[in-house]
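Q: Fold this one first, please.
A: Sequence and structure below.
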Amino acid sequence: MKSPDRIPLGRRTADILEQEILNQRWTKQLPGYRELCARMGVSRRTMETALQILTRREIILPAEGKKARLINPDLAKLNAPSPSERKSLLIYSPKALQDLDVVVRKILEKVTQRFNKKGWSIEFHHNSEFAKGKPGLITERLQRDCPNHRWILILPKYEMIQWCMEKQLRIICLGGEPVELRPPLVAVCYSSLLSSAADNLIKLGHRRLSILLTNTSNNGRDKIANHLKSTLTKHQIHFHSNYHLPHIEHDNVQSHWECLSKLFAVSPPTALIATEPQQISTVYSFCMSKGIRIPQDLSFIIVKECDNLSWFCPTPAHYIFPVAEFVRQICQWVENYPTNIDGHNLLEAKLEPGSSIAPISSALQNK
């Protein structure tokens, strides 16, 4: 298994600030702590660590009392292109960079590194409008200020994609819900991924399995249900939405625990598929409290890469995403925007079995 991504938050914050400085967001001095912490969504202690790192890198000058941190004037001597020659990239996200999934962070870090070296201007924006998929005043202002930018949309919802296409913005979608729209999009098909996980478990003999699905729109849930139903039917398993895709009231520990309690009270599943990293600790804690052994009594798969998989024993089975292929396709589209809209590129993730899945035992099969 690949070692988990463990870049400290202070260093990640320093990397982002360095990119902002090199992109000339600030040219003489940085804003105060309050503004920087609010912008990056980190604590003062984390920001202090980040500024110490930038000082060691000679990006900013050493602190002088309580004065604002000055940017190293030697940076201005770099042979950067003039503003009129500079190409621009805007990354629009539902969350701050440090709060995005591991795979998305890896992809964006490699993409921004590549275009920083090419002298592109890069901006990163996140807000509630984008998270809700409801374009409003903030998104309209970005459209007015950045009409000629390439836009990378992170997991955009249908209405956001539709609005951007109507405004004829040059968008590239990293995941998302395009439905019948056909923007340039690179992704792993989520419904196919979940069906693949189910298929792998069924081939090990598991017929009672459930997917812990959260943070999905009604359209997305319907698509997943249709894919899963097709997979189960292929193996002569009757699809029950309340069992195979149980409703989870809220995306928190209590709701997940209540869902697990109901499942195991009715007909204990022999396999679970998790869709969010925080579900791992809930499932493992629940199993420990009930004396359920993984994988002897329950096989378990998480369909994402996570920071802390090595912390769990047994190591959860998970999917590894083709980061290099994501980066290659996005960079190609950013530099040479497709003239014919209809650029869906669906990639495949590979199952890393870990040690949390096993063939079903005869005792469980006969229950």
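Q: Good. Now the second chain.
A: Here it is, same layout.
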Amino acid sequence: MIKVGVIGCGHWGPNHIRIFSHLANSVSFMCADLNEERLKKIKETFLNIKTTQNYKDILNHPEVDAVCIASPTDSHFTIAKEALEAGKHVLCEKPLSLDPRECFELERIAKDQAKILMVGHIFVFNAGIVKIKEYIQSGELGKIYYAYATRTNLGPFRYDVNALWDLAPHDISIFNYLFGSMPLNVSARG
């Protein structure tokens, strides 16, 4: 059983807690948030979860195997780095960081620690997207030269990142998954 600590209980954190609690091989063991009211609601909904206002309690807990980071974007790098260095596997909401150098640093630390570092690109697990990939791989659609996406918001308006950082990563991760390669050209307008 994988014991997961969820850091950040705003919009997405409670969803992660619920999902980890319903999976056969994991349990939401502990969660952290600075907001005491959020933690109170979590305790009312998920009776057996431990709560703390200090995320480092999760990182230092010997029973926690992995962390899920659902905190504001500007905290992702620091928390992910500390979690990896504490020997935890990391699932982080996107974006992992706003600085590519920090992403490469986290990738290196994860490799050195032999830990999984994963960004929450959830759409690559969507049944519809998986089916499209099957069509592409079968050759039924022929060679793909062009892909187009329109994105709308899936949650609350975010103030910690702009629309590019909030919405575009989903489409980019879908295209990278579907085509198994990086794009040659990208354009956007808003």
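Q: Anything worth noting on the second one?
A: The chain has a mean pLDDT of 91.
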